């Protein structure tokens, strides 16, 4: 990604204005205000894609240490700037991204998708559900939703469309390609919301909830997966049908798709040893993340989620499924560790320095004047939180910038901590449906040309409403049964 001087100048000017021009408000310390200046400049740089996000994160860490906004002592300042890199959550996502490389390298991800299509691919909607099922199967161990939806599922989707001569180049995308591309994309936000490890920003939500509640609410991998399973599955079941009704494919019956998948499975041959090992590691990690050994034999056999990820990666290295070169070349994993650590550090110090409590107090006063109670407040906050994503090109930037403040306001107005955490966590994934730049998967699929800009935005708005109503509606019932509020 080339350096963008205009966007860089905008980010710098924004930071300087907040730091030097805007007076420090009453109730805010200069250190907190200066950290806000650095934080907002960083977010503006990320939105403007001044540099790759990892490079921006390195600059942010440098500036936090250099300016001493957290501590006047240079040694303490650099220690503060690097403090979040010891967070297990950061390493959980980074290691899981490395593990997901095995799905691509061994071909297991493609085999799973072809397998579902070979069974359910007689009709177009069956192909759509097959792609959705494959997306769901690999979601728990692919924290890069872009790698999952754009790198694994999308090439398969395009191959199927091309086998029916449904391509933008031929002007025949409406035969089957447009519909499958929409399903390919809209399965991605839903599966991302179903597991902590299904997209990189989810652990950030876990960390922010933990800090905001003083560790009273800790969203474990199992807690998240169980809480989101029923709402997520309902959304996955409805999504292909909704898109089918709004943008129906011209081709409704697809016997060739089943043959296409079967031929590809034949070409791949028997399941290789490395695929079997990858599948075994996948199963082992799910068992440990679900805490099944502890449930059967007692808490002494409980294994931490990040430790589980390390066990999975270690097994893949020892068995030769992944080499150390594979791990070193997984740039997205190392990139995630770098930018994730920087953003968590900055968000954490905004909270420690008192800015989040000051901001949330002001928003609380404004909503309190309306007199809607905590239920009305949660509705307003959730809708604003979700639809403000039209102005963001990164879910990470959005969640880093706004989650802590919105969550703090809801809690101060009386929202049940666990319930509100799950609602905002769901909204943070549903918002990916909105635009062709909402998350990394979006431009990959949009740029393939099967869906026009107008179609993308219209179905995005519709699916955001459908997902929000179904997810929160079903969630309220399910979460009540689970005793979360």
Automatic annotation (TrEMBL):
<protein>
    <submittedName>
        <fullName>DASS family divalent anion:Na+ symporter</fullName>
    </submittedName>
</protein>
<feature type="transmembrane region" description="Helical">
    <location>
        <begin position="336"/>
        <end position="359"/>
    </location>
</feature>
<feature type="transmembrane region" description="Helical">
    <location>
        <begin position="305"/>
        <end position="324"/>
    </location>
</feature>
<keyword id="KW-0472">Membrane</keyword>
<keyword id="KW-1133">Transmembrane helix</keyword>
<feature type="transmembrane region" description="Helical">
    <location>
        <begin position="277"/>
        <end position="298"/>
    </location>
</feature>
<keyword id="KW-0812">Transmembrane</keyword>
<feature type="transmembrane region" description="Helical">
    <location>
        <begin position="36"/>
        <end position="65"/>
    </location>
</feature>
<comment type="similarity">
    <text>Belongs to the SLC13A/DASS transporter (TC 2.A.47) family. DIT1 subfamily.</text>
</comment>
<feature type="transmembrane region" description="Helical">
    <location>
        <begin position="366"/>
        <end position="385"/>
    </location>
</feature>
<feature type="transmembrane region" description="Helical">
    <location>
        <begin position="457"/>
        <end position="479"/>
    </location>
</feature>
<feature type="transmembrane region" description="Helical">
    <location>
        <begin position="85"/>
        <end position="104"/>
    </location>
</feature>
<dbReference type="Pfam" id="PF00939">
    <property type="entry name" value="Na_sulph_symp"/>
</dbReference>
<dbReference type="GO" id="GO:0016020">
    <property type="term" value="C:membrane"/>
</dbReference>
<feature type="transmembrane region" description="Helical">
    <location>
        <begin position="224"/>
        <end position="247"/>
    </location>
</feature>
<dbReference type="InterPro" id="IPR001898">
    <property type="entry name" value="SLC13A/DASS"/>
</dbReference>
<dbReference type="GO" id="GO:0022857">
    <property type="term" value="F:transmembrane transporter activity"/>
</dbReference>
<feature type="transmembrane region" description="Helical">
    <location>
        <begin position="6"/>
        <end position="24"/>
    </location>
</feature>
<dbReference type="InterPro" id="IPR030676">
    <property type="entry name" value="CitT-rel"/>
</dbReference>
């Amino acid at each position: 990604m080339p350096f963008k001087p205009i966007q860089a100048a905008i980010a710098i000017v924004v930071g300087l204005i907040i730091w030097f021009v805007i007076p420090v408000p009453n109730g805010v310390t200069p250190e907190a205000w200066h950290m806000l200046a650095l934080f907002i400049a960083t977010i503006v740089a990320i939105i403007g894609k001044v540099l790759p996000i990892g490079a921006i994160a390195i600059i942010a860490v440098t500036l936090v240490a250099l300016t001493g906004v957290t501590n006047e002592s240079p040694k303490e300042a650099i220690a503060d700037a690097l403090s979040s890199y010891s967070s297990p959550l950061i390493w959980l996502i980074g290691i899981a991204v490395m593990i997901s490389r095995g799905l691509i390298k061994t071909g297991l991800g493609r085999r799973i998708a072809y397998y579902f299509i070979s069974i359910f691919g007689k009709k177009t909607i069956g192909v759509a559900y097959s792609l959705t099922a494959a997306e769901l199967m690999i979601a728990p161990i692919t924290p890069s939703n872009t790698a999952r939806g754009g790198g694994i599922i999308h090439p398969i989707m395009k191959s199927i469309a091309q086998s029916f001569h449904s391509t933008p180049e031929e002007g025949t995308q409406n035969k089957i390609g447009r519909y499958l591309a929409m399903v390919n994309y809209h399965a991605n936000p839903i599966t991302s919301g179903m597991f902590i490890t299904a997209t990189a920003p989810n652990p950030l939500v876990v960390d922010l909830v933990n800090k905001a509640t003083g560790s009273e609410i800790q969203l474990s991998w199992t807690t998240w997966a169980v809480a989101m399973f029923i709402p997520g599955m309902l959304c996955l079941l409805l999504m292909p049908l909704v898109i089918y009704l709004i943008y129906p494919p011209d081709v409704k019956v697809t016997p060739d798709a089943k043959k296409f998948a079967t031929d590809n499975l034949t070409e791949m041959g028997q399941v290789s040893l490395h695929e079997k090992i990858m599948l075994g590691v996948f199963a082992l990690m799910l068992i440990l993340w679900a805490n099944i050994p502890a449930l059967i034999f007692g808490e002494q056999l409980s294994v931490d989620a990040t430790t589980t990820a390390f066990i999975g990666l270690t097994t893949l290295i020892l068995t030769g499924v992944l080499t150390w070169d594979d791990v070193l070349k997984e740039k997205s994993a190392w990139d995630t560790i770098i930018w994730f650590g920087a953003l968590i550090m900055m968000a954490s110090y905004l909270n420690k320095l008192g800015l989040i409590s000051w901001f949330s107090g002001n928003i609380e006063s404004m909503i309190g004047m309306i007199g809607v109670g905590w239920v009305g407040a949660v509705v307003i906050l959730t809708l604003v939180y979700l639809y403000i994503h039209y102005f963001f090109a990164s879910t990470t930037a959005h969640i880093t910038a706004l989650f802590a403040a919105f969550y703090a306001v809801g809690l101060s107005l009386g929202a049940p901590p666990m319930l509100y955490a799950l609602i905002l966590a769901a909204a943070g994934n549903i918002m990916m449906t909105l635009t062709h730049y909402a998350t990394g998967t979006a431009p990959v699929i949009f740029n393939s040309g099967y869906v026009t800009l107008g179609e993308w935005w219209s179905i995005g708005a519709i699916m955001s409403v459908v997902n929000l109503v179904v997810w929160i509606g079903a969630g309220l019932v399910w979460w009540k049964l689970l005793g979360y509020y």
